[in-house]
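Page 42, continued from yesterday. The earlier attempt failed because a stray header line got pasted into the input along with the sequence. Redoing it now with the clean sequence only.
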Amino acid sequence: MKFVTISFYSFSSSSSSSSNNIAIIADRGVKKSHIATAVVCIWFNNSIIQHLQIHFINVILMEAKLMAICTGLIPAMERDNIHDIIVITDSIAAARKILESKVDSLQNIFIPIISTIGSFLRKDNRNKIHFWYCLGKAKWPRHQLVDNQVKASKCIPAFPSKESHLFSRKKECNNILHEWQESFVDNPKKGQCFLSFEDEKQQVIKPIYAKGGS
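This time it went through. C-alpha cells are written below.
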C-alpha cells in the first residue's frame, strides 16, 4: 500500500486545480453542552459540489476532528476519475491519528475507513491523498466559511446518546479533579503545609495534575 501523504503547507486559492483533483475542507467544534458539530465542504473545479454537516454528542474534541475528516474522505473517494484528494484541516494531529499503526483508543473511529483508503490507493497508481494544514487564524475565506458554519450551529439532538469511552474517561477525571480541588480549598490543614500561589491576574492557582501540575 502506498503511503498517504501529509503536506505541511498553507492552502490558498492560488493553488493549482485539475479535473482530477478534489479538495475537502473540514472543521469541527464542541460546545459546552457537549454537542459536537462537523462541517465539510467538498470542492471541485472551484465550486462546492457537496456540503455535509453532522452532529455528535458526548465526544471529546479529537473524536470530533477525526469524524470531520472521515466524513469528507468517504464521499470523495467514491467519486469517479479522482486521483488527488486534498484534505484541508487545522488539525494535522488528527490526520496523523489515521496513519498511526499503534494501538489507540480512537481506532473505533478511523479503522473502518482504512480499508476504503487502501482500496482507493490500490485502484490506480495515480491516486494519492494529501493532508494540508490551514492555520485557523489565517482566515482563508474557504476555511472561514466552514468554521463560521460550525460556530453558528445550534443543533439540539432529538434523541439521547451514549457517551463515548474517551468522553466518559474525561468526565470522570474532571469530576475527581473538581472534588480534589474543593476538598483542598476546604481543608483546615492547608495553611500548615501549603502556600497559595497566584497567577498574573492575582487568581489563586488551583492544584492540577497535568503538565507537571501547579
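Notes: Helices lie at 61-77, 92-99, 107-123, 141-152, 165-186, 190-193.
Reminder to self: strip header lines before submitting.
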